Structures are given as C-alpha cells and as structure tokens.
C-alpha cells in the first residue's frame, strides 16, 4: 500500500468516524436551531447523512480489503467498528424519520 492510498484511507476513516460522533452528539439540534426553514434543515441533514454513509462505506470496503491482504488485529478491530457505525448510520437514515429525535 503506497503512501497516497494510506493517507486517503486514514482521512476517509477519520471523516467517517468524526462525522458519526458529531451526528450522535449535537448535529440535529444545532442545524434545526440555526436554520429557520424546516425544509432547508432537512435537506442539509440528508446531504450530511449521505456523505457520512458514503465515507463509512468506502472505509469499510478498504478495511475489509486490508484485512484480507495483511491480516492483523488492528484491521479486524477497525472492520468491526466501521461496520457497526455503518449499520447505525443506515438505521438512522432509513428507519428513523428526520424530525423524530426532536
């Protein structure tokens, strides 16, 4: 694995995990309190969710490939973490209505 793909892998994982944590901690209340129009706020949340879902999907595929190529406990733990976050993100996007948390 060359340095360029390692850097993309680390940045993608960081973006996915950090955006998931921001989502869990304060994203919904922050967006609905800043933006007055409910339709714009829902659109912002939808775009945020799709970016997070795509990032976590790419990260899980990369982690599974690295687990297959190199093995090691680190990649197995990353696989478990990322797939868990991916499942939670998908559940939050498709099973829970956007305003249900409020």
Automatic annotation (TrEMBL):
<keyword id="KW-1133">Transmembrane helix</keyword>
<feature type="transmembrane region" description="Helical">
    <location>
        <begin position="12"/>
        <end position="35"/>
    </location>
</feature>
<keyword id="KW-0472">Membrane</keyword>
<feature type="transmembrane region" description="Helical">
    <location>
        <begin position="47"/>
        <end position="68"/>
    </location>
</feature>
<keyword id="KW-0812">Transmembrane</keyword>
<protein>
    <submittedName>
        <fullName>Uncharacterized protein</fullName>
    </submittedName>
</protein>
<feature type="transmembrane region" description="Helical">
    <location>
        <begin position="75"/>
        <end position="96"/>
    </location>
</feature>
